Amino acid sequence: MEKRAFCTVALVACVICTANAATFVLPVQCSGQYSTSTLQTIQLDFGRSFADIQGMSIAWSGYVVPGWWVDLVWGSGPDPGYFEATLKDDVGQIAKIAHTPFFGASMYPAPQAFDETNQFSPFLNYMSWDFLLDGRAILIVDLQAPAHIHTAVSSEEPPLSYPPTGYIQSCQLILEATPIPEPSGLLILLSSLGGLGGVTWLRKRRK
Question: Each residue of 140-166: pLDDT tens digit?
């Protein structure tokens, strides 16, 4: 009976520990109109601390209205745009970046809708997720326009250069992490272990 009770205690501890690895979804308030000169800075707070972070992605939807690019040497064409999300650490250093593909060029002059989930990747050699272990970070969302990427169209288009614009309709962060157990969770674990240990002691004493 002792062996069985010990196995039960170990099983309870194992189930509680493995249940800690989870997915956390945080809605981000960054909807609205964007231009290439506009950005939004958001203070993130997941409301808890983490022991380990496996990765994070951003799920967002909206549309991009292409601009028009003119160059005296290379000609002209629609100027696509893409949304970029940047995570910064406590000292303001860029840590991770995620972005959508280019949108707009193939739909010019109509807007092109998107509904994407993009993974955050290290910026340069910033491999660690330690800056997010306290559940807080700075997120910057903006619209980028690589004007050197263009597609030639008919010469009937107006010879005016203007950047793309965009709109974000919804956005949320998806974090894969192992949280630090909350006090209530530790109390449940200790109560379970204590209760099962007490049962084992009583059974042994009755013998």
Answer: 999 998 755 444 445 555 556 788 999
In the structure, what pLDDT confidence band is assigned to residue 64 with cuts at 50, 70 and 90? very high
pLDDT of 118 > 70? The answer is yes
Following DSSP, what letter does each residue of the chain receive, concatenated? Answer: -HHHHHHHHHHHHHHHHHTT-EEEEEE----EEEETT-EEEEEEE-SS-EEEEEEEEEEEEEEEE-EEEEETTTEEEEE-BEEEEEEE-TTS-EEEEEE---BSGGGTTS-EEEEEEEE-EESTT----GGGTTSEEEEEEEEE--TT------TTS----B--EEEEEEEEEEEEEEEPPPHHHHHHHHHHHHHHHHHHHHHHHH-
Tell how strand 67-71 and strand 112-119 pair up.
unpaired
Whether the per-residue pLDDT at 93 is higher than 70: the answer is yes
Considering the domain delimited by 23-179, tell me its CATH architecture: Sandwich (2.60)
Can you read off the two tokens belonging to residue 65?
Answer: 């209205």
Domain ranges for the chain: 1-20+181-201, 23-179
pTM of structure: 0.75
pLDDT on residue 7: 34
